[in-house]
Each structure stands twice: as structure tokens, then as C-alpha cells.
Sequence to fold (332 residues):
Amino acid sequence: MNSQMTSLAAVADSDFEAVKTAGVFVPLTQFGVIDVKGEDAAAFLHSQITNDVQHLDASTARLAGYCSPKGRLLGSFLMWRSADSVRLLIAQDVQATVQKRLSMFVLRSKAKLSDATSELAAVGFVGDVRASLSGIFDALPDGVHVKVDGPHGVLIRVPDAFKRARFLWIGPKVDVEAQFGKLEEKLRRPPAELWDALDIHAGEPRITHATVEQFVPQMVNFDVLGAVNFKKGCYPGQEIVARSQYRGTIKRRTALAHGEAATPGAELFHSADPGQPCGMVINAAPAEGGGIDCLVEIKLAALDNGAVHVGAADGPALEFLPLPYAFPSDDA
Fold:
């Protein structure tokens, strides 16, 4: 909880206000990058992760997950093709473990995984940022997960937050950091935790060390977010993921909530059944106006009535907020 309180103090309300009324850029130190190179790179990844890599074209990025044989997520990432590789943007605290595990299954495939984090920098942009980005890229992506290439790296549109457009720029660290001076003349530069808050409001969970092997993809809404392709071939955990999808109603989902305190990995307890957990905090970040916003995996039945508390039956209570998208059953 202390780390969450530190994060709370790190993001000012004026940073959130700048998202809505101006523009910000956020150097993203919480991510790492795995490069997968070689003529079999796409085919190898296709056999390992939840989304289609074989048909990933040069103008598209995709969300995906990497599961254990039991169908539980070991990591999640945004992936795209670069000139000679498939790149995976992943939470830095699970990168080394995921990279090592994937490497164990390369076997005879002509594919090699490497850590590209030290060579690349990732920066998030949100708000009124088009003029600033136009000075770096000739064209801007016009749809979510559309990617454009430029001399200084790639620019990917990611889901909006607070009804503001968001972009990710990933490029050579030297090129990216050389632009910071010019960007600071036009845009506010809040701490990296602001981006975590924006991902939460976009309803996009991220697997970190605290939640490894806790969720099948549907529990974190990956089927809704397009991170699972149910028509592709086998991958570790595929039978369990498919069975979860087709056996009937999905009873656990990810919801958006606000509370006084929340830490990733903390269990949730419902007032009607305080003796056993009903869910878990996935991600948490400072909220505008104080407190914590979080994405939580929870039994849908627990949202119908009663109160949900973090950490213990008498822990901080959560207030649930609407996600920016609907579940398939809501569309019927």
C-alpha cells in the first residue's frame, strides 16, 4: 500500500486536467520490449500466444496474451511488426520471465528472442497532441491499433481515455529522447503513473508480476478487447481458453472501480460472503481528485448488490464505474 500512496502523490490533478484541456507526453518506463527475429518469428509466436501473428500486417498492432498450459495468463502485450522482427511491448516486471519461457520453446524454429528495452524508448501521448506529433511523423494513425512507421520509429493509436485520443511512440532511445526538449515546450510531462491511470480508464488490463497465472483471458476481458483469436491454431492453454468461451455464460469479468486504496494482487471480498474472495485487483493507479482507480477481476454476481472491499471483509470499499465498452451479453 505504501507504493500506491507514493504513486498517489506523484500525479497531480493538474496532470489530469492537462489531458482534457491541453496535451501531455509521458515517457513510459514501466514497459519493456521483446524482439523476436528470424524467418520463423511470426510462425513461432503464432503457436505460442492468444492472437493471430501470421496475418499481422505492417499497418496494425494487436493485443495478445501468453498463457500457461492451464490457460492462465503469464503476460500480456501489444505486438507489431518492425522491419525485421515482431516486437512485444510488455510490463517490464514480467519481461525477463516471459522472454525466458518463450525462448525455451523455440526448439528448431528459426527465431531468436532478445531484450530491446535498452535500445528503445516508449512514450505515450494524449489530448491535443496532433500538432506535436506531426513534427515527428508525416501521418498519424486514424484508428485504434493502426500503426504508422516513420524515420524515428512507430506510432500506434491506442484506445481513448477520458474521451481523448491516445498514441504510443516507440523508437530508438537516442532519437526519442532528443525530441523531449521540443515536446516540453508544447506539452505537459506528467509521471508514468498517469499512463497507468489512462489504461485503467480505457478498460485495458495489463498483466504484471502481482497477477501472473491468476486469470484466463476472458476474466480480463481480452475476448472483448480483441486480444484472443478463437479461430487460430493451438497455443499453450488454448483448449481451456476455448472451453471458457463456449461452455456458457462467462461468470467473471474485469470491472472499473474507485476506492481509497488498492494494490495489484489484493483480493476482494463481498459483504454477503466475507469468508472467501470474490475477485482480485489487476491494476491500480492514482485517481483524479484523490484515491485510487483500479481494474478488478470479479464475479459478476458480486456486482449486483452488496458491497465489495479490498484486502479483507472490512477493508476499503470500492465504488464501481462504467467501462468504456460493453460485454457481448450486454449487446444482445
